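BUG: 3D viewer hangs when loading the predicted structure for this chain

Environment: internal workstation, default settings.
Expected: structure renders.
Actual: progress bar stalls at 90%.

Input used:
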Amino acid sequence: MKRTRLLILALALAFLLPAFTGRAEEEKPLVVASVTKMNGNFTTNMWGNNTSDVDMRLLLHGLPLVYKDVRQEAHAINQSVVRAFSERGEADGGRTLTITLQPYLVYNDGSPINARDYVFSILMTASRYIGDIGGSPVVMHFLKGSAEYAENPTIPFAGVRLLQHDTFELTFTPETAREGSLLHYLNYQPYPYGIIAPGCDILDDGQGVYISGPWSAELLKTTLLAPGSGYLTYPKKTSGPYSLVSFDKESGVAELAINRNYFGNPYGVKSTIARLRYEHVQNKDILAKLLAGEVDVVNKVSADEIIREAAGQPELSAIDYPREGLAFLGFATERPLVSGEGVRRAIAYSLQVGQIVRDYLGERGKRVYGFYGSDIAGSPEWASLVNSIPRYDLNAEAAVKELEKEGFLYAADGELFSADSGGVRYRLSDFVKPGEDAQEENAVPTVSIADKPEQVAKLVPLSITIGITPENEAANQVVSQLEQNLPRIGAQLNVTILTMPSLLEHYYRQVERTCDLYFLGSNFMKDFAGNPSGYSPESFDLGNTPSALRDPVMAELTRRIRDAFTAGPAEYKAVWSEYQNHLATVLPVIPLYTNEYADLVAAASGLKNYHPENHWSWAEAIVYAGK
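Structure tokens produced before the viewer hung:
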């Protein structure tokens, strides 16, 4: 259960950080490529969580208070960062954690890191100002006074105290304190408040930490999001094993140099490879670029055909490891056509996911029915729970029944839709689905409205739009099936091609969405606790998850799975099963498959001791590697 219980975030070319060396400038970089193009969220995941951006954050920010690797069952204090740690109970049942930092912590430019940098990262990410400028602030339900601070970021945050320059405290609510270990809540990195909030100070007058000075959404918009220089995408001052030299957002190429001021990961390991180049590659170009020496490593290759062909090349090697994540279709449930569960189910009934797994992934893939990855998909221990999750396979009859319940009964002229006549189904724009206990006279009508022109004028077609990225073979197979099967049930499919950055802007609701569903993939991170958004349970009440789903049952189950995070296996499995069953019923996402990844490595790269199978990310594995 190690991975399954985890809830799984431009410098000018001439700019040279003090920690860089001449050797780093002269040495040929190791070129790592990914089929996922970076979006530029290199500081936090509050504007999106693209897997390549996650890797960049691990390279650039490297001083977390706690850590967890694939060998651990629970988080541990990062003693490279934390000098002293203590815990005490509060009269109301809450608990307070006191953290004292090591005295030698520095950023890549050699300037000191202290408690204010960690406290600032908490206050910034919890602030509603993040939401005001287009991000998704972290809902810190677990800390005392979080709701009050989130609403008014100028007041003290009661649950966060700054005691000395190297010491701070976090007070957890009584509800959270009952969970057991609280260490998984401490996954904070330091951010330089002097750069992100210039002119501001981090103060504590006894009532909690607050930010003084010109602290505002307008300030953050300038310092975080300014094109070409905002800290979100172009962080100059960082704390990880590497420093950003340059990033070209259009081409998706980042140049990095080793941070000589980095003292090592939680195990004391430091990077030795002086320069990295991280770039985007399309599936069709992977082998050619590796064999030509243009790329040294390609990370997270899925396509079975490419991996098989690479196996026949003596110049290449493949390192296999299971994917803790999945591919899925994510709905934009705020859009009228897919706001009803029935339409979402009808689309699920129009897919043969097993065929996609066989054709695209071969034996390296497994179909999934909920939001989980390879650990659970391949585990006999979880088989009975997985088998209890509602399933959707190609079934036109079941799909039609779902659409009729959602009011899609008519042809364009108002006559009742006939499968024999073909065409597209329509429903009234003001259709309201009857409740499950609706009386017969209040059920969905089954009579023609062709003689009622005022009604016919209100008919809207069942015309579904899917958003996919270009050159995406798995997405193309999904589209091919939907183009074949949706017309058979009276639905029309439209396809919108979006760049990966643009698709993620849609998925995270940073722009007005123009598609009803999107083809996506998710790779779980260390803090993944079994829910598909990583959002707080309040998000399902407010509808501010990527799916925009408002569902109080989903909210309660998210709360319970979060609370079971540190519980025993039996309790966690029981809640997990309820969660996945309800997810498959309301269907904000259609889970597709998980798979085995391969990193392809060119022998000419000279890369040694590279073992992504032993780490969460290539960005962690590369710290151990050499040339």
